[in-house]
Amino acid sequence: MEQRSRILFCSLALLVKLCCYLEVVAEEDPQQSTRETCANWMAGAPGYPGHNGAPGRDGRDGRDGEKGEKGEQGAPGPKGDSGTLGSAGAEGPQGVPGLPGIPGVKGVKGDSATAYRSAFSVGLTTRVPFPNIPIKFTKILYNEQNHYDPTTGKFRCIIPGVYYFAYHLTVYASDVKVSLYKKDKAIIITYDQYEKNDVDQASGSVLLHVEAGDEVWLQVYGEEENNGVYADNVNDSTFMGFLLYPDVGYGQ
Ligand SMILES: *[C@@H]1O[C@H](CO)[C@@H](O)[C@H](O)[C@H]1NC(C)=O
Ligand SMILES: [Ca+2]
């Protein structure tokens, strides 16, 4: 019994080998081994494709590229915050003094108008009779405030301040040397040499500060031969003066 089974098994094995052989002959690839062919012949249906593997590790860093071209200039940035205040500069030079102001006057307009007025303009009617005394100008052209006294020939200051004085004299018959006096002191002197058969003129002017109570007048200076101040109906010799401006603070 056992021997018969062995014979059967061998017969089957031979049959299988024969089949394999026939298959090998039919294959185009002569390299394929008989065993593999047998395995294909005996294998089941192909399996499904496997899942994707996990991502690989990062590669190494690449080398540095070549240097690029210079880019265009960018737009200006926004305005910055204002800086802190600087320290004060050095003190500048002293300015020129201001002009003295004219003090205001209380009261009605008429009073203030007369309070600071002082002016006179006078002339001679005849030639000067004597030297060395004040010349008395008795021809009154203007003397509203009566600060000029024709009886003494002197201007007497009431309003202290700066005054302008001037004189324009006709010279005849002899030389003229006159002086403008203030408080018995000759301030300016004018001299004219008379030419025979002629009429000359002598003149002078001055700005003076005059205190209240001071007197100003014109007087022939020197001796008789300088007493040529002359006047008649058609040749005048005049003397004048007026307040240019009163002292600062006067009347306040
Ligand atoms: C005064 O002036 C007039 C001209 O206006 C002249 O004729 C006369 O001679 C002058 N007087 C003297 C003393 O020269
Ligand atoms: Ca002369």
From TrEMBL:
Residues 113-250 form the C1q domain. It is found in: Secreted. Pfam families: C1q, Collagen. SMART domains: C1Q. Residues 57-72 have a biased composition (Basic and acidic residues). One of its GO terms (cellular component) is extracellular region. SUPFAM superfamilies: TNF-like. Gene3D superfamilies: 2.60.120.40. Keywords: Collagen, Secreted, Signal. Residues 1-26 form the signal peptide. This is C1q domain-containing protein. It comes from Anolis carolinensis.
